[in-house]
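Appendix B. Extra example for self-study. Work through it before the problem class; the solution is given directly after the inputs so you can check yourself.
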Amino acid sequence: MTYHTLTWLAWLCAAAFAALVNSQPLQTVLLILTVGTVFTVASKASTGGESSGAGRHTAAGWGTFLRLGLWVWAVATIFNLLFAHAGRVILFTLPRNWPLIGGPITLEALLYGLSNGASLFAVLLVFATFNLALDSHRLLRWLPSGLFQAGLVVSIALSFIPQLMSSFQEIREAQRVRGHQFRGLRDWIPLFVPLITTALERSLTLAESMEARGFGGIAPQSSEAGRTASSRSLATPLTIVGLVALLTGLLMRAIVSQALTVTTILLFGGTIALLAALYVQGRGFQRSHYRFEAWRPGDTYVAALSLASLVALGLIQWRAPSLLYYYPYPPSSPWPGFSPWVGLATSLLAAPILWWQRDTRQPNRLAPDHVEQVPQGLP
Amino acid sequence: MTERTIAELQSVTFTYPDSQRPALDRLTIDIREGEFLLVVGPSGCGKSTLLRTLNGLVPHFSGGRFSGQVRVAGKDPVAAGPHEMSTLVGLVQQDPESQFVVDTVEDELAFGMENQGIAPAVMRGRVEEVLQQLGIVHLRKRRISALSAGEKQRVAIGSVLTLRPRLLVLDEPTSQLDPRSADEVLSTLRCLNADLGLTVICSEHRLERVVPYADRILYLSDLGARPVLGPPEQVLMGMPYSPPLTQLAKAFDWRPVPTTVEEAEPFRSRLGPLPKAYVAHQTLVGSPAPVVLQVQGLYHSYNSNGTFKDMTSAALKGIDFQARQGELIALMGRNGSGKTTLLKHLVGLITPQMGSVLVHGMDTSRTQLDELIRHVGYVPQDPGSLLFADSVREELEFTRKAHRLPPADTNQWLNQLGLSRLGDRYPRSLSVGERQRAALAAILVAEPDTLLLDEPTRGLDPLEKQTLARFLKAQTASGRTVILVTHDTELAAECAGRIVIMSEGRIVVDAPPAEAMAEAPAFATQVARLFDSGLLTVSDVLEAYAHAD
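Solution. Structure tokens for the complete assembly:
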């Protein structure tokens, strides 16, 4: 375990923003190198820290995911190279009568393909790093309480996948030994019917077990019952108002591009109303958390640097968007630019590696014995 | 023990949705505070339904029609619902695999408390306490997926104990455990019951295991007869099937009825020495049957590529084993000792990394799977893995077709396995025992020479088990070889001609049942532990002493 969940969330926002707004290839390469370093450190930490093989497993899993990402990059490049015939610098020409790919193959097309693939890969890398560094269960507790249940369901569904894979294997073997051969599409029925029914039976057991341990219930506190009821009745109108405002705002943005202030107010107001509805809804659920996360000085630094990067790139995007935008085809120049300001903002994203090393020497930073905490938000 | 009532049911009738027959019929019982109550009865008698009534899952989760009065620890579960009951009643399910929500032991123990909004400081204290009570402190940070079945079941118990329930309710908690893990879990329960005064209510099929721990037994029969609730001796004597010691007590009129081997010891010595004339389990002398399965120097590792430098992690470490035609061999051992891996080698699902496996003279690493499965049938642990068709009969026809065999008379197999009335039923709607038999029929219909079964007795009640034992014995009489992976010592004693015990990837015992059970007491039946002269089952004893008269 490394940083506080909120720190990682701040980092994710900044890194994802950087990956999404920037298309200048040199800057993208810098971003990939920066985030790649964080990924390497994260995978080292997750393999070294854990005694069981599970950590190694996760790291290997995301490694495979990224190898897949490299293929995506390569395919995107080749695709653009062969199909976009625009540009002045011609590398070679394919016979005109070849369908689609025939014609001049240009340097611009190669550069554009490479840069697009790089942007795509950068996005994948950011999410892989985030997932590797942060366990999904830690993320859950920061969801608004109203969304907690939905979040838990998603996280259980994810953990069902390995179980499903192993029963898939079992059933396939059992049917195979029964003489069945899997050739056509219809041959898969003897596999999928048992797979689905087994999974359903298992999930019913799990549901019972969760229900028997009080999941999803509202512990009724007699003194608070009234307040809870009244605040929950507030949730519905808030949700409706919020949704209407948000939808009107989006429509106005799409259709009438003039009334900017009104649109902005509607969009902002709608979002706030929805968040408030979630908060009000969530007050009905009394839930505490066993895991406690400490906020360390390292968290402050990393979060601050991530936010600085986010703000800097946001300002650049607002005042000088051309620094982030890459278009190699004429009339622009095919040569990518590099802005030191963007470079600086990007390299701030390496912040997690700076305070990480010190932390890994205290593997038990989340262990309850080290923590004294005042219960909060409890009856 | 106090005589205060902690739970009572009055004239409770419950019918599941889509069902005509009530699962509970005007049931009236009381449960005393601090007692260890064992709930027994044939499958489908309503044991699980009763247990789920105590915390309101029935009727809240199940739906259905409910009438009657229930009071548990001063509350009405029907009115309160499972959420509110969760702090009073802890429910542990049969399958340790499918009841976990999060990945680590500690988090799982805290899950119930988080739902209740219990303060973090209190949670830490309770997690600590429960880890110690169950003797699993060392597992605290472990991932649940990496635990053994016995450890998982103890974590499941812990995950409900942290809510400090007043009743602990367990639905067949040991049915998937090997004898030793089962004993560990049961003695944990006994400690909780004795030291903390926790009321324990537990259903179980393998009576001989649990009876010694029980204060009272509730016997539910499925045929609408009145349920019987009382002290173990009394209830056991009135049941149609009972553990070996009770059967002996009935036969020799032992009073009071012993429930443990120690208690039975004085009665046995009164029986006098074994009559000389009797020779246990005579072996037929004759030319030995041909060898059909031959395993030599077999090694297997799930994470190796054929080099066995690191032997500690190997699943099989040098197996030598053979089976002759018509033999019935019970393959036993703790969970994870390599039994299933060996079985998969015998059917060709895994080919040897080192060593060799010959099936009916064919080397499995050089023979097509289709050729092998003409001779070997395999019934997996979960019969549900096989069943997918719309009727039992179609399952049988499907197997014939898959083996490219001409259509055959399926009725013959349905009759033999007592499924004649169920031929047109949807396989998934059958009871556990019926499903098991349907799967067995679906494999046998291809008429394999060798039959491999992986844990066929999961969830079967004693009568169903006896039927299965008789059926398998009849199969070997007609020349079929049967290999059975099982945790059930009574079943092994009943039908096996040879017992093979595995431990950590090695065969440690390979002998006729009497010798095997003498060598590995953990896998011995009650009778074998009581009489150390080669007697294994009640019928052995009765036969031996009949010679005396």
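Self-check: Strands of chain A lie at 90-94, 103-106. If your reasoning did not lead you there, revisit section 3.
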